Amino acid sequence: MEEGHVSCNIDAKGLATIEFGHPSSNALPGKILSKLANAITEMSNEPNCKLILLKSSGSRAFCAGASFDELIAIQNIEDGKVFFSGFANVINACRTSSKLIIGRIHGKAVGGGVGIASAVDYAFATEAASVKLSELAVGIGPFVVGPAVERKIGLSAMSQLAINATAWRSARWAEEKGLYAHVYQDIDQLDEGIAALVEKLTSSNPSAMEHLKNVFWKGTDHWDQLLSDRAEISGRLVLSDFTRNAIQAFKKT
Fold first, then answer.
1. DSSP 135
2. CATH number where 151 lies
3. Distance between CA 253 and CA 251 in Å, rounded?
């Protein structure tokens, strides 16, 4: 658990719950991101799975993005591309899943965390689940998560997050823009809302839900290459003197 975890289980109704976590505010290192992408794919291919619930552990941040320790350790373009491909692989696993994915966003989402929230098919959140795309503040940019965020909330709202990279946007703002379907006052109400929808969906026609999934993600077949190209952009930028200096300044705050 000290190095992070990804766990999966399927209940009798066919709900597959995938939980990820890391002690550092659920900021995810590459190994955890790889396990998370694989877990989504494996549960999607599980015959008994009708629906996926994606959640993180703890009661504070939902996901603080990628591991900052790994970010500052990048020394070459190849390692940079691999690092930034972590969230790309999770987003693409959500995209190509044959199952509808419900997101439980119980706390703040930053950077890649906003990408995950955008990649699920239906997101529930609490009022604590404010969002921020902080990448530009450290000299990079939300290139990898950008397509998922833009698809969900539109270019205008995504650009607001990307440009004003140090500003938090409230969960209500995210709900208004379409990132969250419902926002609740607390975690208890959040889980009640999720349970109600899960009950309906696990009783729905699996084939119909799979066809709906395909409709929702129409036009994204090129994302394997797109997100790989975006990861390479970020991998190059992280090696620049400007970004190195921005990262060092960020460490001191």
1. G
2. 3.90.226.10
3. 6
Q: Residue 211 falls within a domain, yes or no?
A: no
Query: 169 forms bridges with which residues in the sheet?
Result: 131
Does residue 210 fall inside a structural domain?
no
In a domain, residue 27? The reply is yes
Count each helix (H run) and each strand (E run) in the chain, helices first. Answer: 10, 8
Asked if 147 and 234 count as a contact pair (C-beta separation under 8 A), the reply is: no
Domain count, the chain: 1
pLDDT in tens, 198-237: 999 999 999 999 999 999 999 999 999 999 999 999 999 9
**pTM for the full model?**
0.96
For residue 191, CA distances in Å to 56, 198, 234 come to 13, 10, 36
Please state, in angstroms and as integers, the Cα–Cα distance from residue 70 to each residue in 3, 16, 28, 30, 142, following that order: 13, 30, 9, 8, 17
37: containing domain: 5-187
